[in-house]
């Protein structure tokens, strides 16, 4: 079982604000008009964890709790212009990427974040919970080559870990092997292989190239898991923006997503969204020391 503790609520000090250390996180991702996944989930999560959120849109996705009906990718020039708008003005302490649909879009994002001295959290979004492909199948190669080596931490689910490594990832041993390949062969700084798609406890595996850390919570029996991956990685980004260590950030994110799944409202006719406010029910539960 994962340890849980009651923790202090985070507020920046006067000094931190003066030093421009108010935590700021940026998400670069697609949309979910029903608010459970994508940019919307990321911004809600940043806000809940008391981090100032910024967002750059990659694609507009017509989706709801039942599935995806249409996708419109923004022009490359518009993606580049948004990156310029943000980076010429406000420097984030953490950058998270979610859905980036094409190799060309990935190249643009990679070229802009390469030079940034900031934590980069990559959620290698490929397929929605509904089974709909959110990125070009050919773009997986670009994801591996251009973006993944820049990542402080990458957060694949099991099918994404399989696509990245080219090997089946079904068991805990497979997760360990995949984690090693993702860090040592593909060049990510660290990885959390998420076991949300396994049977039994919700088992995630963190690996930083030196040691493994297992994050285990009881599986919640619900179909309302739309946006779990987005929310989890956004929570890691928020905690890193605040300056917490990687392992602390991952532990807090796990606690945050557990509560969000535990207290869903059953919204929508399909796989409903998680409850981004649920951590408030357990005072300070999702805050780091
Ligand atoms: N039914 C569940 N009960 C508890 N935790 C879950 C459940 N489903 C997913 N999680 C957790 O949510 C996070 C996202 O995992 P996952 O669903 O595998 O990602 P994705 O949304 O990218 O497919 C992980 O921490 C995972 O363990
Ligand atoms: C725009 C966008 N990005 C990502 C997801 C994946 O959602 P999940 O976290 O359920 O895998 C999604 N459905 N839509």
Structure description:
The protein has helices spanning 14-18, 38-48, 76-87, 103-113, 139-147, 158-165, 172-185, 228-241, 246-262; strands at residues 24-29, 52-57, 59-64, 67-73, 94-97, 119-122, 153-154, 191-194, 202-207, 212-217. The two termini are 19 Å apart. Helix 6 (158-165) packs across helix 7 (172-185) and helix 8 (228-241) runs antiparallel to helix 9. The chain has a domain at 14-153 and 223-281: Ribokinase (UDP-N-acetylmuramoyl-L-alanine:D-glutamate ligase, 3-Layer(aba) Sandwich). Helix 4 (103-113) links the parallel strand 5 and strand 6. The chain is globular and about 45 Å long. The chain is built from 9 helices and 10 strands. The protein has 289 residues and is α/β, with parallel strands linked by helices. Residues 1-8 have low confidence and may be disordered. The structure holds adenosine-5'-diphosphate and (4-amino-2-methylpyrimidin-5-yl)methyl dihydrogen phosphate. Residues 157, 194-197, 202, 204, 217, 219-220, 222, 225, 228-229, 232, 254, 257-258, 261 line the site of adenosine-5'-diphosphate.
Short description:
This protein has 289 residues and is of the alpha/beta class. The protein has 9 helices and 10 strands.
Query: Which stretches are poorly predicted, pLDDT < 50 over at least 5 residues?
Result: 1-8
Oligomeric nature of the chains: single chain
The CATH homologous superfamily of one domain is called Ribokinase
Biggest β-sheet: count, sense, barrel?
5 strands, parallel
Rounded average pLDDT = 91
Rg, Å, rounded: 17 Å
What fold name stands as the CATH topology of one domain? Answer: UDP-N-acetylmuramoyl-L-alanine:D-glutamate ligase
State the share of residues found in helices, binned by percent: 25-40%
The CATH architecture of one domain can be named as 3-Layer(aba) Sandwich
Number of strands: 10
């Amino acid at each position: 079982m994962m340890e849980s503790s009651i923790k202090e609520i985070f507020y920046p000090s006067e000094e931190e604000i003066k030093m421009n250390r108010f935590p700021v996180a940026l998400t670069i991702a697609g949309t979910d008009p029903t608010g459970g996944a994508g940019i919307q989930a990321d911004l809600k999560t940043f806000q809940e964890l008391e981090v100032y959120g910024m967002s750059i849109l990659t694609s507009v996705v017509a989706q709801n709790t039942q599935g995806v009906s249409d996708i419109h990718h923004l022009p490359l020039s518009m993606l580049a212009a948004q990156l310029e708008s943000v980076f010429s003005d406000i420097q984030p302490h953490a950058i998270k990427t979610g859905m980036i649909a094409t190799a060309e879009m990935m190249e643009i994002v990679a070229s802009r974040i390469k030079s940034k001295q900031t934590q980069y959290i990559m959620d290698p979004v490929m397929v929605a919970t509904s089974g709909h492909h959110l990125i070009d199948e050919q773009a997986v190669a670009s994801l591996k080559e251009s973006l993944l080596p820049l990542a402080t931490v990458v957060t694949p689910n099991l099918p994404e870990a399989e696509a990245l490594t080219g090997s089946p990832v079904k068991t805990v041993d497979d997760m360990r092997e995949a984690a090693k390949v993702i860090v040592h062969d593909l060049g990510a700084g660290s990885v959390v292989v998420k076991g949300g798609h396994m049977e039994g406890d919700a088992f995630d595996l963190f690996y930083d190239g030196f040691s493994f850390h297992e994050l285990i919570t009881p599986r919640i029996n619900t179909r309302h898991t739309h946006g779990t991956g987005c929310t989890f990685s956004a929570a890691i980004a928020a905690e890193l923006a605040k300056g917490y260590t990687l392992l602390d950030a991952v532990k807090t994110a796990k606690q945050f997503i557990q509560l969000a799944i535990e207290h869903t409202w059953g919204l929508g006719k399909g796989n409903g969204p998680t409850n981004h406010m649920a951590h408030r029910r357990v005072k300070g539960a999702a805050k780091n020391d």
